[in-house]
Amino acid sequence: MVFCILLSLFSLFISAISSSVFVSAFSLVNDFHVLVSLKQGFLSPEPALTSWNSSNPSSVCSWAGVFCSQDRVVSLDLTDLNLGGSVSAQVSRLDMLTYFSLAGNSFRGGIEIANLSSLQSLNISHNQFTGGLDWNYSSLSNLQVFDAYDNNFTALLPLGVLTLEKLKYLDLSGNYFYGKIPESYGKLEGLECLSLAGNDLRGKIPGELGNLTNLREIYLGYYSVFEGGIPKEFGKLVNLVHMDLPSCGLDGPIPGELGDLKLLETLHLNDNLLSGSIPKQLSNLTNLMNLTLSNNVLTGEILYSFIY
Predict the structure, then answer these.
(1) Residue 207: strand, helix, or coil
(2) Average model confidence (pLDDT) across the chain
(3) Strand, coil or helix: 103
(4) If you write DSSP's letter for every residue of 21-36 in order, what string do you get?
(5) DSSP string covering 199-224, please?
(6) CB–CB of 128/102 below 8 Å?
(7) How confident is the model at residue 129 (pLDDT cuts 50, 70, 90)?
(8) Is residue 108 a contact partner of residue 85, using CB atoms and an 8 Å limit?
(9) Gap between the Cα atoms of 261 and 281, Å rounded
(10) CB 125, CB 149: distance < 8 Å
(11) Interacting residues of 159 by C-beta distance below 8 A, sequence separation 6+
(12) CATH number of domain containing 9
């Protein structure tokens, strides 16, 4: 009886191993087919992707830009490979992907990334993608870094990013996003960097952004034209190191609450319509190294503490 039980357990063990090996091999073959499909949509894939040999599935983990772990593709880095064309939706079948970069190429058309629950970093910057970014972000639940800088997106700012509870870095700058900055962006409380600069945004900068107390960098300037001034709530951004709000139509006084940003090293407010005197509270910014206030309508004396 004991022998039969041991034999049965051994058979189950062997079956489990065989099943695991089969599933792993099948999954890698799936990744192989996805990558082959991607390459077919690319323009000028050679010589950058010469190693992507479509006749040899077992070689996929040695392909340029591909990194595997436990026989699955977990990283795909196609940065600066002079690629063009389109990006197939098939990429969303790389279900173990944690890092994906298409940065620095010439991809065109729309793009949508979904169903990659392991993905932590997504970089599609410096391309020519168009349309919007109204994706199913709830299927990207582990995303921490999203960089879409320098494309041709023309749409409202995406609200779906609010479902990304782990998001730390969001860069949507250098596009043609229009409309207002949503007040709800103030709920992205894990953000450490927010860049919406160089778009076509209007309306007021929402004071709710002052709730982003983990922010270290904020960029909102250039090309957008905001109504009103700098929200006094920005004084709550106590971890801020870099504030960049130049050339975006800001008027009114510089709020004294900015003097509470004790870690601030860089403050760019140039080329706006800011008026009044420089608040004395800014003398509390003992870590400030770069201050730009030029081309405003400020009056009064420059604080002695700003003179080096």
Answers:
(1) helix
(2) 90
(3) coil
(4) HHHHHHHHHHHHHHHH
(5) SEE-SBPPGGGGG-TT-SEEE--SS-
(6) no
(7) very high
(8) yes
(9) 10
(10) yes
(11) 182, 184
(12) 3.80.10.10
Q: For 271, which DSSP code?
A: S
Q: Are 159 and 136 in contact (CB under 8 A)?
A: no
Q: Which domain holds residue 299?
A: 2-306
Measured CA to CA, the distance from residue 40 to residue 239 in angstroms comes to 46
For residue 52, give Cα distances in angstroms to 62, 96, 106: 9, 19, 20
Quote the pLDDT of residue 16.
31
**DSSP bridge pairs for 100:** 76, 122
Percent composition of the chain: helix, strand, coil (DSSP 3-state, to 5): 30, 20, 50
Distances (CA, A) of 273 to 5, 160, 228, 245: 84, 33, 10, 12
CA 222 to chain CA mean position, Å: 19
Question: Do 147 and 167 contact (CB within 8 A), yes or no?
Answer: no
Does 10 score more than 50 pLDDT?
no
Is pLDDT above 90 for 65?
yes
Neighbours of 268 (CB within 10 A): 18
Rounded to whole angstroms, what are the CA distances from 270 to 81, 143, 185? 37, 34, 25
Structure token pair of residue 19: 């099943």
Q: Say which amino acid occupies 150.
A: D
Q: Which two tokens stand for residue 43?
A: 């323009």
What average pLDDT does this structure show over 173-186?
98
Confidence (pTM): 0.90
Q: How many domains does the chain have?
A: 1
Separation between Cα atoms, residue 64 and residue 46, nearest integer Å: 11
Q: What is the pLDDT of residues 188-224, one digit of tens each?
A: 999 999 999 999 999 999 999 999 999 999 999 999 9
